[in-house]
Specification:
alpha+beta, four-stranded antiparallel β-sheet, rod-shaped
């Protein structure tokens, strides 16, 4: 029942990470930062080899709502869903050499 799982069926997640390291003679500590992004086309139709497929809850719901959204209301098949987020962290320890 999570909205994002219904809006994005399958999409690659791209990421880029950076480590910020502080060091001296005794050891080092670090902070990490990762940037993530997803881009997918919003297509609310069930797909299975070009045929409708009613094997799961997703397929049943999208058969009804996808038809209404794309065909009856005339919405585009080219709408993009994009998500970007950052995560940062540290282990709060000084590591010896």
């Amino acid at each position: 029942m999570k909205e994002l799982t219904w809006a994005i069926r399958h999409a690659p997640v791209f990421f880029d990470g950076i480590y910020h390291v502080v060091y001296n003679m005794a050891g080092f500590a670090y902070i990490w930062e990762i940037q993530f992004s997803i881009e997918d086309t919003l297509d609310l139709r069930p797909h299975s080899g070009g045929k409708l497929n009613f094997h799961g809850a997703y397929d049943i719901v999208t058969s009804i709502l996808g038809t209404a959204y794309h065909d009856l209301l005339g919405n585009t098949d080219k709408l993009k869903v994009r998500a970007y987020w950052n995560e940062m962290g540290t282990d709060d320890a000084i590591h010896e050499w």
